[in-house]
Specification:
globular, 8 strands, 141 residues, alpha+beta
Length: 141
């Protein structure tokens, strides 16, 4: 699929709609240590997933962890382009946050990545179908 000006213009229009629309906080969020490469623990595994509250530290030094949340786009946002904004504190004193990288999955399928320069990800159209989806994000801490 070649890259064209028309495709770029369509994506810019989609991103504009997302930026100018309502936002929804995705909660609750759970965290679990990685058990293998690109494989989150099953959602039903007892004790693997722990609640993660805003502002709490998570993970281990130089380790990979998973974040998980159920995602259901509200009816007023369905059938529209929807973006996920992964926000974290970044300061010059905490160089680790400045080089953070993460990979996002929707229902087990990779949909994109995040880093300190790319904190917004346009979700696939199927994410705004009104159904519940499992959002998992693998991140290195």
């Amino acid at each position: 699929m070649p890259f064209t000006v028309q495709k770029l213009q369509a994506r810019i229009a989609d991103i504009g709609l997302v930026v100018e629309s309502a936002s929804v906080l995705v909660t609750p969020v759970y965290v679990a240590p990685a058990t293998g490469p690109m494989t989150p623990p099953p959602a039903t595994e007892d004790g693997a997933w722990q609640p993660l509250e805003k502002g709490h530290m998570y993970g281990v030094e130089h380790g990979t962890v998973w974040l998980r949340a159920e995602l259901c786009i509200p009816s007023v946002m369905q059938k529209q382009p929807v973006a996920l904004h992964l926000a974290w504190d970044t300061t010059e004193q905490d160089w680790g946050l400045l080089v953070l990288e993460a990979t996002a999955f929707l229902d087990g399928v990779a949909i994109g990545g995040f880093d300190y320069r790319h904190q917004v990800l346009l979700l696939p159209e199927r994410a705004s179908d009104g159904r519940y989806h499992t959002l998992t994000i693998q991140t290195y801490t």
